[in-house]
Amino acid sequence: MASDNIYTPRQQYVLLIVCLVGLATLILLGLGSYITAFLGAGVLYVVLRPWFAALVHRRGWSRQLVTAGLLAFAVVVIIMPFTGLVLMLVNRIRLYAQDTSQIMTVLHLIEQKTGYQFTTETNVREIIQQAVAWLSTRIPSLASGLLHFTVVIGLMLFTLYFMFVQEEAFVRGLRRYLPFRADTLQELGDSLRNTVNANVLGQALIALVQALLTTLTLQVFGVKDALFWGTLSFFTAFIPVLGTPLVWGPAAILKLAQGDTGQGVGILLVGVIVIINIDNLLRIVLAKRMGDIHPLITLAGVVLGVELFGLLGLVMGPLLLSYLIVLVGVFERENHILKRFQTEPAGPLPEPALPKLPEKGLKENRPS
């Protein structure tokens, strides 16, 4: 019986792809505000995967028990402290946005020392409001309520749980449905691991050390709210090239403007000699163990990632650029192989081999 379908097999194939792409786009748009939960689950999976493999695959421990322990570790050691830092930063930014008198006092001191008036209270208030509005779209806890934040964290932990419990099915699905060869998947996996190690483990350790040193330095030299500015330096440390000088630099200028020359010079000396060199030293030590990412990729990735994913973009931005570089290299390699296959001459065809007759048969059929 002939089919009544009006589409040819090729049209059906094309329409099937269009339907898949359309449904995937609708799903991504629907999960737009929760996409950070899945990205965060992927990052935590890479961070915690070595411990899971050591305890489950090597020592044979219970998969569910190890997964529950890793989730508890992630909540207590990673999520809760990071959330506390973000909330502290958000609350203080709101305070400065509502009361600009402290900022204006600092600016007036600088104007008195320089003899040049470069701002007014109205301009400062507008700039601060614009900065808060920008941050409100980048920091999840500032833009959303407690319910949304709880849903994001719960969805991230729920996804991470099944990534570990059903790890074999998860990895098998990636290998089956991603349109890449095995060696390309290996390169992408290595790039993901290097980026996460460098921008999460390595950079977080460097940022923590620099934040502690910045807090201690500001506390010693009498800067108010040293704990807050040290917390802010933890986040600015993720920005390549600029980093913690965005915090202790203005603090030194403030001390110099107030007439505390010794304290201002002391902050500058500690910042330049100790804090910056600690950054360089730790990067050299950790680069061999946790992955080495070029500073230009990190800088451009941070700008791109924060614009797209908020704070999680500190990791996802450099990862996107790293994936782009890997895929460009794969395309170049595959294209080179294809061009060589198309341009090389095929050469003369080999002559067909004739069947070899037995010697006995040749002798019998030879004419006498």
TrEMBL record:
Q: Where are the transmembrane segments?
A: 12-31, 68-90, 145-165, 200-221, 227-253, 265-286, 298-331
UniProt xrefs under InterPro entries: AI-2E-like (IPR002549)
Q: Which organism is it from?
A: Hymenobacter lapidiphilus
Q: List, as start-end ranges, the regions of compositional bias called Basic and acidic residues.
A: 357-368
One GO cellular component term of this record is: membrane
Q: What is this protein called?
A: AI-2E family transporter
What taxonomic classification does the UniProt entry list for its organism?
A: Bacteria, Pseudomonadati, Bacteroidota, Cytophagia, Cytophagales
- Provide the protein's localization: Membrane
Pfam families under this entry?
A: AI-2E_transport
UniProt entry keywords in alphabetical sequence: Membrane, Transmembrane, Transmembrane helix
